[in-house]
Each structure stands twice: as C-alpha cells, then as structure tokens.
Amino acid sequence: MARAVAVAGTGQTKYKSRYPELTQPDLLRTAIRRALEDARLTLDDIDAVVYAMAPDALTGVMHAERWLADASGAIDGKPVIRINTGGATGLSAVQAGYDHIASGAFDTVLICAAERTGESGDAQSILNRIWDPMFERALPLNTITMLAMQAVCFFQKYGTTEEDMAHVSVKRHKAALKNPYAHIQQDVTVEEVLRSRMIAYPIKLLDSCPSSSGAAAMVLTNGETIKRLNERPAWITGLGCAAETYWMGDRTGPKAEAYHADSPALAQSIQTSYAMAGLAAKDMQVAELYAPFSNIELHVIPEAGFASPYEVARRMREGAFDLDGEMPINPSGGVLCSNPIAATALIRGIEAANQVMGRAGDHQVKGVRNALATGIGGDHQFFASMIFSDRPRAGDDLS
Amino acid sequence: MTAEHPNAVIEHWDIIYTHDKGPIVTEFYERLAENKILGRHCPKCGRVLLPPRAFCDRDFADTDKWVEVGQKGVIETFTVVFQKFRGLPDPPYCIAYVRLDGADTSILNFVRVPGLVDAEAVRHKLKVGQKVKVVFAPKGERTGRITDFWFEPEV
Q1: Structural domain span for residue B103
Q2: Model confidence over A182-209: pLDDT tens digits?
Q3: Does residue B70 sit within a domain?
Q4: Strand intervals (E) in chain B
Q5: Residue B104 domain flag
Q6: Which of A9, A221, A306, B82 could bond to A198 as cystine, CB 3.0-4.6 Å?
Q7: ipTM over 0.85
Q8: How open is the CA angle A176-A383-A212, to the nearest 5 degrees?
Q9: Is residue B5 part of a domain?
Q10: Using the beta-carbon criterion (under 8 Å), do B19 and A134 form an inter-chain contact?
Q11: Contacts of B128 in chain A (CB under 8 A)
Q12: In a domain, B47, yes or no
C-alpha cells in the first residue's frame, strides 16, 4: 500500500526576463521561503530535496545543484537528487518527491526550481543542441520550429487555422492579467496576434511563450504530518508519465504509431493518472496544461479528454475553457505567458494544487475538487501528468 | 558588464566536441557522397528507417540491411523561419520532414523554394503532401553533413 501524499505548501516568484536583484541561489531561496511559510514549516522539517533542473546551458551553470545546495538546505547530510526531463522536468520532480513519501523513505520533501532563461538570450540556439549531432543538429531545429511543424500537422488533420491559434493566445493573455506572477501581462486582440511578427510559420510572436527567469517550490508531506499543518490540503491522487520516439520523422507516414499532430503518449500519461485516481476527465474542475505555443493547447486539451480535436477550436472561441467556462484551462495564463523552463511544469502542479486548496487568488476557479497538471519535454517526447484532489486517494495509507 | 546590464558578469562557453559517428552513420555519409541515400531495414516491423540506425526503437531489434531509397518524396510537415536565431542560418528558410519513396519514416532537410518572402507566400507555395526531389550540393562544396543535400519542389 502506498502512503498518501499531500501538498503542504507552494511558493513562486514573479516571472520576468531578468533578475538583476537576485543571484540564482537567492532567487531559489525566495521561492523556497514562500513555500515553507505557506506550509508553516522550516527548512529543518525537510527530509529530502528534489531539484527540477533542465539543460544546464539555459542557466549557464553546469551542475548548478552544487551552487543551489545552501539555498535549499541540502547540506549536513540531507539527501538530494536532480531531475531533468526537459519541459516536463518540474512535474517529473514532483513525481520523484511523491515516490519519496509514498514509499515511506521520507516524510517531508522539498521540490524546487530556479531558471534564468532570460540571461542567455539565446534559448533557441541552446535548444538546437537537444538534437543529435549526426543527422539533425546541422539543421535549424529548435523548440519553435519543431512545434511549428506540429501546428502544420494539426492544421492538416483537423482543419484548424492560424486564427484558431490566435484565439488561444488572446484567452491566455487575458487570464495572465489576473496572475501577479505571470511574466507577460498584456491584453491582446486576435488581430494583434495575427499581425504580430512571424517567427516560424505558422507560429507568430504573440503565439509564443517568453524566455522567463524565476523560481518555484512545493513542499510535499505524509498524511500524519499534514493533519497538523493544513485543514484543506491538496492530495496527489494520480500520476503518470510516458515517452514517445525520439525520431520526429517517425511520427509521420502510414506506419507511424503517433502522428506529429497528436501525442498519444501524453494521452496515455493522463489516462494513467485518471486510472490511478479512479477519476475521469469529467471529474476535473480545472487543468493547468503545458502549452508553450498557442497551437499546443489545441492538441493538449483533446489529449486530456476535455474536447474532440475537431471541436476544440470552436469551443475555445465560445469560451468553454475560460475561467468561468465549463472546463477552465490555464487560468494562470499558462506557459504562454511565463516559461522559466525547469520550473514551468512544477508551476503547473503548484497552480493545480493551489486551485484545490482554494489559494489561487484572483484566478481561483469555484468548487475545485480535482485538478489536472501536465508537462511536456524533449521534442514532444517526455510527458508527465498529475492529479491533485481535495481528499486522499481511496485506500492510501494516511500515516 | 555591459551598458544594458552594468552589474552583470559576461560568460562565454566555447567547447569543441569530437563526436564519433560509428559504422552506420559513417556508411550513410560515405554513400551520400556517391549521391545515394540509404535507410536501414528492421527485420521485425519491416520498416525502412531513415535516418538510418543500428536498431529499431519500436522492436529493440538490430536493423539487418541497407535499403537505397528514392530521391523523390512528399513533404510530411514543414515550417518557414523568419526569425534570426544566433548560430542558426539567416532567415527566411524552409525546413521539412520529407518521406522519400521507399522509406517509412521522414528525414529533415532544407527545402529550397524561391520567393518565400512572407507568410502569404508560404501559404501559397507550400503544403503537406507536396512532391519534392533531392538535390545534391556540387561535389566541391560538400562538408560531410546532412546539408550536403536539400529538397526542391518537383516541377
């Protein structure tokens, strides 16, 4: 039997291009202090630390967990591990923290991330290096061009348009105005998105996430400890992860197992989460879905079971996924408005947990009992998902 | 420090890697020098994999033979880049995954299409399913990389 795992507290910093006032350890410590205050715990209560850290070159410090150790209390014998699954890193780190507690190895675990994407100013040149040096590195692949090619596939299969993408962007920019941590806080119109600079067809500047710096932290604990800390915690009731082929070109043609428009592995990861929780898409009241470009949200919503891929664009326009819609998606403004890469999927988990705890602030959705969070890493290769609920999973050990 | 960031430290990474290609990749590029494009056949699923690999990730089986693929194919997906990224080519340029005749997977390369000056031109000149052909760089201009060939629309 697994031990129940609860979120005791969360902390975030404002996401922005640069942090001239804080070095990386100081930035991380800011988020950790906020999470500990939120949890009513001190660093001494933390039994183990999990760092969510994406490719080193994004921050320009190799093995930066060394530099960050004192900011997270990973000294004097405290256990520490680092997790990296690219854009899914943050949620994979929460999964590692969950395992630490569910297994009985530790009672209280800190998961934390600090990213300085804005300091290189060259994120897409760095991200070109996630491709192999034999066949694809010599070509200008990066996360924008590879996801632009996803959009072209999605258009081809489901008949969506650049205007459909623009509507997603408008919705998320509007949502981010209510989130004080959001990097981009700017109201935009469909016309402004469509007229914005073309980056990689069909993705335009206002369809794209920013290069953000910032930090986030979450404290997880066991059933016995949470009783004295928090009367309304969020419990982790489901989690899943799944991988897809490295080879993007294998996601095309009649013998492809996964067409590049879709991500069956993401759907599989989410279904695994639902099954573990004994829940389904209809049981979710809100979702924070990893979508760094507007086209990605249009395919992730169907993978989560919230709409048919043929209807998702229409329902987006009708407001079905707005804060007051029937299935609110990314009420924080999502990745489209803040993308500190290593922290980004952790933020999806934090926002989902905050929604369950009733602590999401101005973008709180009413009556949240279950919330879904997802992450995507590599070239749409590594997928992670997690469900946060207002009660423990049936049968979990509450010790 | 810079004028824009007076209290910052400037760091520059300059690292040279010498990546060994191994026999499969070496063979591919030796044949490419002879204007041939070769994929690898998986004995379990029967797919011809391009780019070629020593094993099929679906079956975890060793690929068993070389298969020369055609030099015509179809665009499976594409993008046209209008933004300059440091260290990457000057825009605009088109890259596409093309499934060459006889291959079951697609290979990425540049597509040289004249007149891709703006998004409107992209919408008119490129589409999924479009037929393209392989064009090799002149012998004296080759570098032993994948960019020794590119695609052009098959007129």
Answers
A1: 22-153
A2: 999 999 999 999 999 999 999 999 999 9
A3: yes
A4: 38-41, 48-49, 55-56, 61-62, 65-68, 72-81, 93-100, 107-111, 131-136, 149-153
A5: yes
A6: B82
A7: yes
A8: 35
A9: no
A10: yes
A11: 152-153, 156
A12: yes
